[in-house]
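Researcher: I'm preparing a figure for a lab meeting and need a structural model of a single chain. I don't have an experimental structure, so a prediction will have to do for now. The sequence is pasted below. Please return the structure as tokens so I can convert it later.
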Amino acid sequence: MARMSDTPNSSDTPNSAAAGDDWAGAPFRTAIVTGSDSGIGRAAAVALARDGLDVGITWHTDRDGAEATADEVRSLGARAFVAHLDLTDIPSTGEVVDSLADQLGGLDVFVSSSGTGASTLLLDLDYDEWNHIITTDLGGAFVGIQHAAKRMIAGGHGGRIIAVTSVHEHQPRVGSSAYDAAKHGLGGLVKTAALELGQYGITVNAVAPGEIATPMTGMTDQNPHDASRPGVPLGRPGDAREIAAVIAFLASPQASYVTGASFVADGGMLQMGPQAGSHLQSNDWRSV
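Model: Understood. Here is the structure written out token by token.
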């Protein structure tokens, strides 16, 4: 329970006048966004550049996409550096983060946005596929977050770590046992990291998107407002820029007292559990 004072005064209850205009701290200047060759990662890199941050951009299979992101970042007056990142190559993951931080001249914000998944029922899932997803979505994310945190601590002025998880950090989906396990684990990592890194002025949060119109969901260049999703209260998928806006907030000085939280941005999807359960008319949901 938060401490309550019987006789609050200006020393323990600062107001805007007492705290001054710098209550939220100075804006950050450098960021790395993994998986920023497309989708949410690309939108996040552009949003951070629009807020004045120089950005390190990574790609796994789409170098041209990463270069296009870099061009857009530079068009906003920010610097951009591009690197290849394979999260299943654990030793090189930390090296890529360190190299980009060196090129940027420091690291203030780290967005872990890379990920993969599959639609395979538990009984059909082989260990290699399981291991690939867990290594990419959790193991690689851990190494990136750890190296980013060390760079922020060395910099001595705090930082922001933001992990893009999923609504499946909170609720499962048939055919996604490895993905669900990885995202649940990443959510737990975020909470523990928030506890341990707060003393250094580093906040750690998650953003948990629902279905977003990106290449990962098979909706490349599709306008989400043109797609119907009757099972989602807002009636459509999300736009990557809608997720990037949440990431940009968490990276901003205004989010200086937010840590260990998971921000669900899913159009209301997670609220549909009982409602959807009472309206399903077949057993089709049991298969993929």
